[in-house]
Structure formats: C-alpha cells, structure tokens
Amino acid sequence: MTDYDVLLLNANYEPLNVCNIRRAVSLVLVGKAEVIQDGVNQVRSSEHKWAAPSVVRMRYQVRRPMPQLRLSRHSILARDCHTCQYCGSTRDLTIDHVLPRWNGGTNSWDNLVTCCRKCNLKKGDKTPEQAKMKLARHPRRPQYVPYLSLQKYIRAVKREDWMLFLPVFDEFVEQYARN
User: Fold this and answer.
1) Which helix (H) or strand (E) holds 150?
2) Which residues, 6+ apart, have CB-to-CB distance to 58 below 8 Å?
3) Residue ranges, CATH 1.10.30.50, the chain
4) Could you report the per-residue pLDDT of 15-53, keeping only the tens digit for each?
5) How far is the C-alpha of 12 from the C-alpha of 68, rounded, in Å?
6) Domain 73-123 architecture
7) Distance between CA atoms of 101 and 34, rounded to whole angstroms?
8) How many Å is the Cα radius of gyration of the chain?
C-alpha cells in the first residue's frame, strides 16, 4: 500500500476496502462518500488543489455478506509475513506441508507454512523432526474474518493514520505493525 491508498469505510465506520485515491475522490465528488481524515498528499485539478483523503466514509450503508477467510497461497504468505518459518529468509518463497501429504498431511491452515526453496529441499518429504528442523511458529488458522482481505489488513495495520478505524486483532497487529 502506498500513501496514495485510501481506507474506505462503511456508513457505520466498518472498513470496506482499500481503494486508490482516484476512486476515493470520485466517490466524494459525486456525494456518495465524505472525507473523514486528510492525508499528507494533495489532489490538484486545473483550478483547485486540496488535501488528498486518507480515510473516507460512505454516506449510506453498503450491505455485504460476511466474507470467508479462504485458504490460498497468498493468505499463507501473508499470515507468515512473507518469511520462511524454518530459517527466517524472505527470498524465493514456496509453501511447505509440515506433515507431508504421503504421510496424511492435508492442505489446511494447520499444515501449511511459508518456506524458502533451500529449506524446502533440505526438508524434502520428511517431518520437521525427521529433518532436524524447527518451526519458528506453529501454523494455525487466523481467528478472525475481517471485511478487508488478510493481505490488505496486514498492510493496513502499518498505516498509523488508519489504526483508529481498523479492528484490532492482537495476534496480527503485534506481529505485523513492526515489520
């Protein structure tokens, strides 16, 4: 996310999405949204310039079904902060089955971790104990379902100006706000 991203809130101040500044300004100009907090940048037209919004709120309630947290490669990488769970590397990442599939391992939140290629080759088709490797953190399913996707939420908690409007999930805020 860049400083040009804007947090879009529902009428009840629930986070709806992160959109680009062009979309946010157009929602404000047509009267569908209002600016809650200004950012540090400026928006310019041929005749005017004003502070770019950082947070906007819809003027009406947008009804959405509760989203499901899907198991995907991107979600696993985001949960593990794009870091190998064996050595801590952030380069050349893959997904590893902690318990190999031939040994009954499934594609689940509790069995998939982010792993660099080097560690994945070293571990091979063994359990971490057999390969004499230790996990930095045991994998598990995140305990929440935000309206923002997991990837967007993790990037959003790094923005101090948005923290007032984001739900706090301690397991992620402590881990990802530092990185």
Assistant:
1) helix 150-156
2) 8, 9, 10, 11, 16, 27, 32, 33
3) 73-123
4) 888 999 899 999 999 999 999 999 888 888 888 888 899
5) 21
6) Orthogonal Bundle (1.10)
7) 51
8) 20
